[in-house]
Specification:
It is a single chain. This protein is an alpha/beta fold. An eight-stranded parallel barrel has the order 2-3-4-5-6-7-8-9, surrounded by seven helices. Strands 13-14-15 form a three-stranded antiparallel beta sheet, covered by helices on one side. The chain folds into three domains: 275 residues, Aldolase class I (TIM Barrel, Alpha-Beta Barrel), CATH 3.20.20.70; 70 residues, no CATH class; 123 residues, Double Stranded RNA Binding Domain (2-Layer Sandwich), CATH 3.30.160.270. Helix 7 runs parallel beside helix 8. Helix content is 42%, strand content 21%. The protein binds acetyl coenzyme *A (ACO), 3-methyl-2-oxobutanoic acid (KIV) and magnesium ion. 3-methyl-2-oxobutanoic acid binds next to strand 6 and strand 7. It is an enzyme of class 2 (transferase). One of its GO terms (molecular function) is manganese ion binding. It catalyses: 3-methyl-2-oxobutanoate + acetyl-CoA + H2O = (2S)-2-isopropylmalate + CoA + H(+).
Length: 513
């Protein structure tokens, strides 16, 4: 039997999440998100704030009619009209909840509500009792609980429970609290409110200081058994506690956090992508659990570790959150183990020398290029493999060019094991490079084709060049790849030259026989 306490997950992506500036969602989009939340087995879905608009009312109504496995909830101020509207929208729900709230901090009571503490207590009693007359499941929230005087908070909670609230939520509305303070607030309420055991207590933390998840978990230690959160942590200002972080913290650190949720964590990625698409809020790459880099490794030491045993650098499996597999991102920090693994994936089997040469070129490319794609590695390997045993090889090329005057090519080539250097002019950098090769090899074939394309996207993409040369009726093609287009062109030309010389030699041999 499990020793862990169950914690309800109350998702407010469709209510507090939608309060993020720019995150408005259509009814159809909200229905799609509600479907995914139900599939994740979220306990409570806060579908909207029914009084806010006819559209919000319709959203709550339609979600209540459609979703059968999760409790559907609507927010309502401490106002009878709000509560009636919420009750109306929830009529079709299998399991409905009215969530009514009022601010309890001195600041909010004085400046925003213009109400005395006694008036707020009366409003709590009136609103919760009214809601209980409409529905059995009533949640009451003390808005700005963390800046509320504790003695007054005890009285408010006591009043709400006496009036029939079944869930008591103590939000850190402005993300002001620290974990110790937040835990202590719950402990204080449990110690000072006689009937506290009659309700389930809930956390609702905002992320203004980046503490929303830590505070929510501290709330569990204080006795809360429901957490309010949103997918991707969206919500008012800096957002709410992120559901995926809470769920995976509880799952991964069950040893330190003895709580369980009903959430099907393999649905997390699907939910995250849907919310991101619908709201247009991209998830930052380094976002915990759902960021593009959450299961990606670029540095060689980490890649080596993950290849040998994933747990060296992964504290949860990618599959557990719905990611197919971890990603070994190839880049300048990668090492030989990861490069060998990538080559195997791409179907290459290289000998030792070719491997070392390709790895050297890959590292050099990594120094110049931000993202290295599979296509880049294929281009390097194909280029290297097809040129490594050739008589003529490019060692170094510098070109000097501009909008005026001739271009200059300063090239070193290896010709039959000897380095040869030429500095040659041309009409543009490619012409200068080709002239240098012609001079060093003392030949003058006709250029029939010169074609360049980018291997991947971006201005730092490698160029792949094709050159076709013709000499005395013999035609050959050469290819070359490099992040410097002129170098790629020179490599292609030299490859074609190698083929042409082989053909020449064959012809001479045939003639001699
Ligand atoms: C912490 C939170 O996330 S709270 C939820 C915040 N979400 C939203 O506000 C989104 C939806 N809101 C809305 O559509 C609108 O604000 C409505 C429909 C609720 C109200 O609109 P309006 O009647 O035009 O009022 P407005 O928004 O300008 O002001 C809010 C009023 O509600 C009062 N109020 C605020 N909270 C509460 C409360 N919990 N209980 C009772 N009254 C409240 C304010 O004091 C103010 O009253 P006043 O008009 O007497 O000064
Ligand atoms: C309405 C309440 C629960 C809220 O969103 C908050 O206090 O942040
Ligand atoms: Mg909130």
């Amino acid at each position: 039997m499990s020793q862990k306490d169950m914690v309800k997950i109350f998702d407010t992506t469709l209510r507090d999440g939608e309060q993020s500036p720019g995150a408005s969602m259509t009814i159809e989009e909200k229905l799609r998100i509600a479907d995914v939340l139900e599939a994740m087995r979220v306990d409570v879905i806060e579908a909207g704030f029914a009084i806010a608009s006819d559209g919000d009312f319709e959203c709550v109504r339609k979600i209540a009619d459609r979703i059968k496995d999760s409790t559907i909830c609507s927010l309502a101020r401490a106002a009878l009209g709000d509560i009636d509207r919420a009750g109306e929208a929830l009529k079709g729900a299998n399991s409905g909840r009215i969530h009514t709230f009022i601010a309890t901090s001195p600041l909010h009571m004085k400046y925003k509500l213009n109400m005395s503490p006694e008036e707020v207590l009366e409003a709590i009693h009136a609103s919760v009792s009214h809601a209980r007359n409409l529905i059995d499941d009533v949640e009451w929230s003390a808005e700005d609980a963390t800046r509320t005087d504790l003695d007054f908070l005890h009285r408010c909670v006591d009043t709400a429970i006496k009036a029939g609230a079944t869930t008591i939520n103590l939000p850190d509305t402005v993300g002001y609290s620290t974990p110790d303070e937040y835990r202590h607030m719950f402990e204080s309420v449990f110690q000072n409110v006689a009937n506290a055991d009659k309700a389930i207590f809930s956390t609702h933390c905002h992320n203004d200081l980046g503490l929303a998840v830590a505070n929510s978990l501290a709330g569990l230690d204080g006795g809360a058994r429901q957490i309010e959160c949103t997918i991707n942590g969206i919500g008012e200002r800096a957002g709410n506690a992120a559901m995926e972080e809470i769920v995976m913290a509880l799952r991964t650190r069950g040893d330190a956090l003895p709580y369980e949720t009903n959430i099907q964590s393999q649905e997390i990625m699907r939910a995250s992508r849907l919310v991101s698409t619908v709201t247009g809020f991209t998830v930052q790459n380094n976002k915990a659990i759902v960021g593009a880099n959450a299961f990606a490794h670029e540095s060689g030491i980490h890649q080596d570790g993950v290849l040998k045993h994933a747990e060296t650098y992964e504290i949860m499996t990618p599959e557990s959150v719905g990611v197919t597999e971890s990603k070994l991102t190839m880049g300048k920090h990668s090492g030989r183990h990861a490069f060998a693994d990538k080559l195997e994936d791409l179907g290459y089997e290289l000998g030792d020398n070719a491997f070392q040469e390709c790895f050297k070129r890959f590292k050099a490319l990594g120094d110049r290029k931000k993202n290295i794609y599979d296509e880049d590695i294929v281009a390097i390997v194909d280029d290297q493999v097809s040129t490594s045993s050739n008589r003529f090889q490019l060692v170094k090329l510098n070109t000097y060019t501009g909008s005026e005057g001739k271009s200059v090519s300063d090239m070193i080539m290896m010709i039959d094991g000897q380095e040869v250097n030429e500095v040659v002019h041309g009409n543009g950098p490619v012409d200068a490079a080709f002239n240098a090769i012609k001079k060093m090899l003392d030949f003058n074939p006709s250029l029939q084709l010169f074609q360049v394309h980018a291997v991947t996207q971006g201005t730092d993409a490698q160029a792949e060049c094709t050159v076709r040369l013709e000499e005395e009726g013999r035609t050959v093609n050469g290819q070359g790849a490099h992040e410097d287009t002129i170098t790629a062109a020179a490599r292609a030309y030299i490859m074609a030259a190698n083929k042409l010389f082989i053909k020449r030699e064959k012809k001479a041999l045939n003639a001699a026989e």
